[in-house]
Design brief:
By secondary structure, the protein is of the alpha+beta class. It folds into three domains: 248 residues, no CATH class; 46 residues; 66 residues, no CATH class. It contains 15 helices and eleven strands. The protein has a three-stranded antiparallel β-sheet with strand order 2-1-11. It has a three-stranded antiparallel β-sheet with strand order 4-3-8. A three-stranded antiparallel β-sheet has the order 5-6-7, with no helix packed on it. β3 and β4 form a beta hairpin. The longest helix is centred in the C-terminal third of the chain and has 28 residues. The N and C termini lie far apart (111 Å). The relative contact order is 0.10.
Amino acid sequence: MKTKAARPGRLRAAAQKWLGVPVHLTDGDFWAEFFGSSSNAGVPVNHQTVLKLSAVWSCVRLISETISTLPLSMYEKTSGGKRVASHHPLQFILHDQPNADTTAAVHWEASVAAMLLRGNARCEKLMIGDRLVGLQFLHPDRITSFRRDGVKVWRYTDENGRQREIPNDRVWSIPGFSLDGKEGVSVIGYGAEVFGAAIGADMAASSTFSKGLLPTTAITYPSTLKPGQRDEARETLEALSGAVNAGRPVILEAGSEIKTIGINPSDAQLLESRAFSVEEICRWFRVPPFMVGHSEKSTSWGTGIEQQMIGFLTFTLGPWLRRIEQAISKDLLTPAERLRYYPKFAVEGLLRADSAGRASFYAAMVNNGILTRDEVRELEDREPMGGNAAVLTVQTALAPLDKLGQAEDGNAARASMRAFLGVPDATSKE
């Protein structure tokens, strides 16, 4: 007789056979991560099931893709301000290509998605001696940790099934929202009830649509049917059910009548429940619903696109960007390098307004001597012109009333007189 004690062994064997998961990864942490948390809706909640929700998929993609496409560069502090440290080894790794197989955009996309769903992103430091030459994203499903003689060691399973150990100082961890100051917490675990309710609503909606939007029905007959007649009547009705058969006529015989058992979808507020689930999920990821295509309610972050983007950058993206920047400084730079270099995401592209708004902004910055014309051209992805375009200029219209026109008119008159008499300008080299 099989006992309950044999169940974990069978589960581990199934995981090895069907999932390709090694035995040492099929213990407590594996089952908590793979099967996820249970919910009152009676459905499993894990990273695979929640990503099948369109709202979760949209929120995770929106945040991870936006961050992955923002330029991340190393900057050098100089006496004149700052400049991109193109000579620093981390510049190419962070900005262009972290390893031979992945681009920077794909790498940061996977890392941010892991932080959003799992609470932590982990990467292996690729080293040549003491020099960092690359970063390799470590898939959360294939990594686990243990302690050997009090020292933390990571065990990772490569794509080809080969298992290897990675020293703790070679694993770079970026925690998400944290409660203990060390490890990030999993949104799947804490939001199991919200995600479970959303999954349950989707399953109920799918079941309703598969039955042609019809609630449970019953056919009443004036007399008792024989078993064969009862089965035939049930099969006939089931053959006409389903969304694809909606509208087809039903023939009722022998004085039979159709009655409804249960409540219809509108009475159950199925659509309202699904809409509420979208808003609830957006709250967990701090994303305004309109950014994932849920436009039933307007946003309170402002009416213009620029104001909405500022709100999204400040309240949603800002904390994630700061976590990544500080993790780079803490773990990838030496103490001496931190005094001279620092990483920074360029977010100016997200704040671009319409053409008229940008023109007004640039005019104010140039006329007040804050930006040069070449700096404006750089923001617009245009080649610099050099010369006077690289010089700060200011408007001189604000002059004392008793001085208006004196200097300009006098200089113009003197220049005209010199030109008429053929006298060279005193400042001329000729």
